[in-house]
Amino acid sequence: MSLFGSQRDYKLFANINKELLSDVMEQEVLYYKISLSDTFANIYGESLEKNYLPPVKLNCRIDTQQGQTVDDDFGSDYIKMVDYYFLTDQLVETNVVPEVGDIIMWHENYYEVDTVIENQFFVGKDNNYQLESRNDKFGASISLLCKTHMTRADKVGIVQVR
Question: Is residue 2 part of a domain?
Fold first, then answer.
């Protein structure tokens, strides 16, 4: 049986992290979820025009990488990768489940989610995966990482639904 990492310990840790993100760092983004019911796909499962639900404002930690300009036969293009770290508890509170294809707006630029990674656990324990039932009260998922790339605003075509 585990000695450290109980739900009580996690709640203290989570409250400190939430306060740090919302009151000290104050990095806010708008998160757009794809509205699957309003987006129509062709026979290949592709859609030329996507519709999004109204945005949700979220606090996060942002890790931006140096952008670069690429020249090709069609002209110049700017490529930039950005990583967004969201607290799992805040995502649960706002009922947001990050998925590939969602859009994050930050500094009036749009970033499309390429990968969602959940591998940061409190005291290294995942309470959803325990071999013994007595250990399911220990550990928790702390955050999710969304790896994104910058996309053009005209390609996104954010259309408000409802």
Answer: no
53 conformational bin, left if phi > 0, alpha if psi -120 to 50, beta if neither: beta
**DSSP labels for 61-77?**
EEEE---EEEEETTEEE
* Residue in 99, 96, 100, 114 with CA at minimum distance from that of residue 150: 114
Question: In this predicted model, what pLDDT tens digit does every residue of 53-76 receive, in sequence order?
Answer: 889 999 999 999 888 888 877 777
Tokens of 84: 């967004």
Name the amino acid, one letter, at 124.
G
Global pTM reads 0.78
Q: Is the pLDDT of residue 48 over 90?
A: no
In a domain, 141, yes or no: yes
**What domain count does the chain have?**
1
CA 101, CA 112: separation in Å to the nearest integer?
6
